[in-house]
Specification:
The protein is an alpha/beta fold and 216 residues long. Helix content is 45%, strand content 17%. The protein binds adenosine-5'-diphosphate and adenosine monophosphate.
């Protein structure tokens, strides 16, 4: 029998991967692992790779598959992953998907991929309007999900931040990277019969209901 699930959230930047992953984390009591968050934390350190990660993220390009492999291997070895985990933003390339397959086999897990489908046109407003809590990483949006008190997190009261890569230039690059390197994973996982697609243009609560239906 498989030892818990690995849920992969697949979708363009701003499609709602983090928003949905946080809810799934509560529903299944397994952790959300955002590679973007882990890399942003690494970028702030004074480690040998920090400068490179910082520059790559700022440019909206993809960090190397080797670094991601190390990040994901280390994080998923932790105790809280023993019953499964949700990957938010990983894999983003075919190479990463192959490396994840190794992990799935090694850990004897079941893999389920949720593809959040949405047209690019809707993403600019979502990304430029995104704000996230500097402490608990709760996600808000000045247009679609404003916090109750200006620039403060409803959950923990800390300041909200506007990600420096959520600007028009970087968003355009990130969308190019998505279409070139990540969108091919839709066919890749469809061929493996582990992909389900939901309409990410619907309100977040409705998207969550659609995702929950997949797990029934
Ligand atoms: P991703 O993790 O895929 O980059 P996020 O979950 O961070 O995307 O969502 C991007 C922005 O869009 C956030 O500001 C979030 O509040 C908002 N958002 C997410 N899902 C929806 C939705 N279904 N409708 C409207 N806004 C959404
Ligand atoms: P995200 O927070 O998911 O929007 O990711 C922000 C940035 O982190 C991306 O634009 C990439 O520079 C980097 N990143 C996150 N996940 C990956 C990944 N799986 N592969 C390569 N780069 C990544």
């Amino acid at each position: 029998m498989a030892l818990g699930k690995i849920i992969v959230m697949l979708g363009a930047p701003g499609s709602g991967k983090g928003t949905q992953a946080k809810q799934l984390q509560d529903k299944f009591s397994i952790p959300q692992i955002s590679t973007g968050d882990i890399l942003r934390a690494l970028a702030k350190e004074d480690a040998p790779l920090s400068k490179q990660i910082r520059e790559t993220q700022a440019a909206g390009k993809l960090v190397s598959d080797d670094i991601l492999l190390e990040v994901v291997n280390q994080r998923t070895k932790k105790e809280d992953c023993k019953n499964g985990f949700i990957l938010d933003g990983y894999p983003r390339t075919i190479v990463q998907a192959g490396q994840l397959e190794g992990l799935v086999t090694e850990q004897n897990r079941e893999l389920k991929v949720i593809n959040i489908e949405i047209l690019d046109d809707l993403l600019l407003k979502r990304l430029t309007g995104r704000r996230s809590c500097s402490f608990c990483a709760e996600i808000y949006n000045v247009y679609f999900k404003p916090s109750k008190s200006d620039n403060l997190c409803d959950k923990c009261g800390r300041n909200l931040i506007h990600r420096s890569d959520d600007n028009a230039e970087s968003i355009e690059k990130r969308l190019q990277e998505y279409h070139k390197n990540t969108a091919p994973l839709i066919k890749y996982y469809n061929d493996k019969n582990c992909l389900s697609t939901v309409d990410g243009a619907k309100p977040a609560e409705e998207v969550f209901d659609l995702i929950c239906n997949i797990f029934q």
